[in-house]
Amino acid sequence: MDEIIYNHKHPIENLDKTVTQVVKLLLLSNKLIASAESCTGGMISQLITSVSGASSVFELGICSYSNRIKHQILGVPQEIIDKYTEVSAQTAICMAEGVKKISGADISVSVTGIAGPTGGTPDKPVGTVYAGFVYNDLKFAKLFKLTDKSFDREAIRKYTALSVLEIVEYLLTEDV
C-alpha cells in the first residue's frame, strides 16, 4: 500500500479546481460516485455537491463516524474492526465496498482516520488517515500521513479530501 506524506508545500488551493475536474470527468464518462466518510465528516460529499452538475454524478454519501454504523450500515465485519481497528486499510476498503454495494455507484471512496487533536496513539498518531477505493476491478487503500504537528484538525480533513479527489481524478483520467 502506498503512503502519501504531506507537508505544507502541497497546494490546498487546488481543492476547488480538483473537485470541479472530478465532477467534469464523471459527467464526461457517465459515471456515478459514492462516499463513506468518517474523519472528514461528509466533507468530500459536500465538496462534490457544491459543483454544478453534481446531481447527475453523485449517488450517495454516508457519514459513518461510529463503528456501529461502519458495521451495521456499510457492512464492515466486526472481526475486521476488532483485528485491525477502525483506522486501517482493511476497514477503509470494506467501507468503500459497502457504499458501492448500497449505491451501485461506479466508483466508491471511503476515509477513516484520526483528525485530532486527540485520539492518536504511538502506532497511529493524529493525522493517520486511510482512504479506500473501489473502481472497476480495482480495490485498494492509501495511507495519508498528515502527522506534521503544524496540521490542525481542519487541515487534516481538507488534505484528506484533496488527496481522495486527486486519486479519483487520476483514475477517471486514465479511463477517458
Describe the structure.
With 176 residues, the chain is α/β, with parallel strands linked by helices. Helices cover 42% and strands 21% of the residues. It is built from six helices and six strands. The protein has a six-stranded mixed β-sheet. The longest helix is centred in the last third of the chain and has 23 residues. It is globular and about 45 Å long. The two termini are 25 Å apart. The mean pLDDT is 93.
In short:
The protein is of the alpha/beta class and 176 residues long. Helices cover 42% and strands 21% of the residues. A six-stranded mixed β-sheet has the order 1-6-5-4-2-3.
Average residue-wise pLDDT: 93
Largest sheet: 6 strands, mixed
Strand order of the largest sheet: 1-6-5-4-2-3
Number of strands: 6
Order of helices and strands: EHEHEHHHEEEH
Number of helices: 6
Q: What structural category arises from helix and sheet content?
A: alpha/beta
Helix content: 40-55%
Shape estimate: globular
The percentage of residues in β strands lies in: 15-25%
Draw up the topology in text.
Elements (H helix, E strand, L loop, with lengths): L2 E3 L8 H16 L3 E5 L5 H7 L8 E6 L3 H6 L5 H7 L4 H15 L3 E7 L14 E8 L2 E8 L7 H23 L1
Parallel strand pairs: 1-6, 2-3, 2-4
Antiparallel strand pairs: 4-5, 5-6
